[in-house]
Amino acid sequence: MVVIAVVLASGVVAHWIGWRLRVPAIVFLLAIGLVAGPLTGFLDPDDTFGDLLFPAVSAAVAVILFEGSLGLGWRGVRVAGTTVVMLLTVGAATTIGVTLLAARVILEVDWGLAALLAAVLVVTGPTVIGPIVKSIGLHGRVGAILEAEGTLIDPIGAIMAVLVFEAVFRQHGDALDVAGNLLATLGLGAGVGLVAAALLAVGLHRYVIPDELHSATTLAAVVAAFAAANAIRPEAGLVAVTVMGVALATRPEARAHHVLAFNWTLRIMFISALFVLLGARIQPDTLRDLEWRNIAFLGTLVVLGRPLSVALSTIRSGLTWKERGFLALTAPRGIVAASVASVFALQLAELEVENSQILVSATFTVIAGTVLLSGLSSRHIATRLGLVDPRADATVIVLGANPVARAIARALELHGAPVRLIDIDRRELQQARMGGFDVHHGSVVSEGTWEQAGVHAAGTFLALTSSDEINALASRRAAEVLDRRNVFALAPRRREHQGWLRLPPASVARTLFGNQVTFDRLDELIEQGWEISSTNITDRFGVDDHAWVHPDSIPLFSVDQRGRIHLVAVDRRRGPRPGDVLVALTQRL
Asked: 399 FRET partner, CA 20 to 30 A, in 36, 110, 118, 577?
């Protein structure tokens, strides 16, 4: 219990550190595993979990693959386009070829072990790609390509590794038999996944399953489909859960996307545990055996293998050289490669295959090296290539283009914040457009509106419409995309019969400016000629002095010496300090 508690707690701590430092948490998870395992000996996963270790790891990977494919959906595959197909075929073949030759020449292993190592290392994996894409805020085509490739290549790589092992070391068939087994495994897994998705979709659509059991039933169905496919044919389970997620995402009548919130929690917990266990399972001897050959092998895959794979896969793809460059520099390996390598290392040792330990040491070197390279450099590279807006986290999405919203948006822009306005009223939008604002027309319930306005990549969301109901609805939707700490809304009007809106403000969003500062009050004050002013707060002229000069003013936000904007909210922790600029709605003197 102590070990399990430490693994879970350290995983959460690693994710928190990654969030604070804006570095993928996988880097810290791997470091924690290395410290807990080979460096201190505190954690021995094989001793702690015994025979349950690999089944538990397999089930966790299955859930992560399902969650990734469900979030990706067929629409995500279409956004990624034919580039993904090329990466899964031409790219995978190129990676296998380069890895095969590098293992044979650099690691000096025989062709059979080199082929097995090439099959193991062809995968990238959503356990690594997903957190990296999310942490750096990479959206659009490049992000979709990376996530689609990582989700779809995992089952293919695992199956190939199994087939290579059977053909080379157990000598079960020739190349034609291997190809036939590959197709049979893919077909069986796809069939099981489609059947499972259809059954679950019918249950959800016909309300056979109550809402409170949706997440639990979906999780059970995923594990059942994975186990059933694997029982019939090894490694078909990964194909089954991947196809199941994509198929379920294409069935809008199933309304399965609300289970993603629960599955995302599982994903964080599983990824945390998997990478801590991965680092802890590395044997001290493996660390000592990381000689120059492994480093040269890693360098060959990073410098030659991946760039060549992307170059051949993106011919006539329409991708810019910057997008192709980022794809060429991003191919971290994950837990699937580690799990498959560990299983085969044990079986190779039983068969007394010469140099079998190289499979684990080389795989660990590639995993650690690619995770560290991608985790630590991906944000910088994406920013330098112009794929990620360095000011994206500073972007403020304002719902509303009315005079109140325009006045607050103008003040934010004057103090350096990029602002985008969303509204459905074309007349108000026209006024905002004439004022030079970046505006987007659409409904708050439309996914297209949110994508067009870039809400997913923004840093702050302000609901400033005249409708309390729309503010509440939009805030709830925004809280699902951004952290709730970044979602703000005006206080609702105090009415005797509020109907369904009788909710404490904090349950939907953080309340802006005060519980008594409603839209009607702000609109009235602006109509009366009140204006938004900026005041430098110093040791000699503090907040109390400002309140004495402007007794009825409404503080809106403050700007610190580093240019960061701090909105005034009911639950705010930080007030204006000397050196800050206080922005408030004040009566004209």
From this structure: 577
